[in-house]
Amino acid sequence: MRRSHRDESGLATVETTLMVVILVPLLFGVIEFGSLFQRWLAAETVAAHAARYAGELGGDDPALRAFIARELGAVGIDASRVTVEVDPSQVTWREPVRVTVRSSERIDLPFALVTPITISATAVARGEVQR
Description:
Oligomer: single chain
Distance between the termini: 101 Å
Mean pLDDT: 90
Shape: rod-shaped
Structural class: alpha+beta
Number of helices: 2
C-alpha cells in the first residue's frame, strides 16, 4: 500500500490567521458593546438626576447645564459631544419637565466596521417651585 504524505507545515499558520481574523473582532465587539451599554446606563442616570434637579430649579437654568456637564464628566462621557434639551424651559408646581441627553459615540471594530451611534436618554420629573 502506498501512503500519501502531504506537507502540512504552513497549515497551523493559516488556521491561526483565520481564527485571529474571526476572534479579534468578536472580542472587541463584546468590549465595545459593554462600554456602549455602560455609557447608555450612565446617560440614563444623569438624565434622571437632571430632570429632578430641573424640577427643583423650576426648569432650564445655567446651574442645571453645569450640573449635567459635571455629572457626565464623572461617568466618563465627554460633555462637549452631548446635547441637552429641557422641555419646557420654565415649570411651576407639579408641572412635568422633560430632560433629554443625547451623546454622539463611535463603535470601532477592527477589520469589521467603524460607525457613529447616538445614545439618547430621557427622564421626566415634576416641578417643585411655587411661582
